[in-house]
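We emphasize that the prediction below concerns an isolated chain of 350 residues; any contacts that depend on oligomerization or on bound cofactors are therefore not represented. The input was used exactly as deposited, without trimming of termini.
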Amino acid sequence: MILTLVLKLLRDLRLTLFVTASLLCLFQVFWTKIMERIIAQLAPFFYGMAGYSGIDIKQVEKVVFDGPGKLIRSIIGGETIDLNNAMDMFTIAYVHPLVQTIICIWAVGRAAGALAGEIDRGTMELLLSQPIGRGTLILAHLIVDIITIPLICLSMWFGSYVGYWLVNPLTLKEYDNLPKIQKVDIEFGIAGLKVKIKDPTLSTAATVQTKMPPGEGRLALHPELLGKGLLATGGLIFAITGITMAISATGRFRFRVLGYAVFLILIMFLVNVISQVWEPLMPLRPLTIFYYYQPQQMILGRGWSVNFSEWNQGEALFQLPCLLVLYGVGTLGYLISWRIFERRDIPAPI
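Result of the prediction step, given as a token string:
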């Protein structure tokens, strides 16, 4: 009976699943082209202009990402992400706000309709009139997650591979003729006398030869490493689904559950982002689920844990595996939903 129920749930989700997977896949391809434009064309241009002006490229980044720019920097991965490294830029697609939004819409929408949605439509009594228990219904939704979450993650990985095939190998564009300021002659009159001053500080050359060094491994892309980050992506989907399932188990109306869940997830997302640029909110960051979503660090080999430095004045407090928290929260959410749903009364359809 549970197999029939799982197939029925998958059939109901097939269109939504296809749209979600397609959007995530297409965005990965789109982002890879954006990354190619930034790394292969824009970066050499700004490198050349900075070199002509005698400014270090890191100083240019500091100016660009100062003030409100810090918020953008935190959204794309923070200070640890090297914007001149192709692989670092490649991983931004996994933490991009649009990707996280699509993931949250899928997880919240599916879980809100799982229990409260059936009650709201008046079909829960019909469903439970079959020879299945309430716990079996929760288990069926868990199995659906076990099937659909890997499919969503694989669609992102496939999109990354398609983008890789389109842009690899990356080739730096050479700007041999960068625009340069021409010399300026100033001419003015004083008491009927014409005075002409030549600017000796500006060169008469109209071009400058500047090439950005490729650097060892800076342009290399390794899409096979993205699989490690997808473990975190799957964990985030599962965690948000579990949280929403717990809310859905207490509710009667789907849109009310959606409102509560969206509000909670949005608050956690904003706290996680803003706390990285506004210190008073910093201690609240580990209380959000997005704090443990670290696919970039996993992909780039920079650790699979968080250290709670926000609670210890910037010093590491203790290490906690990110995946343990993400999948643990999802599991706890399902257990809470099972416990509540087993004991609650199902209201009659209005």
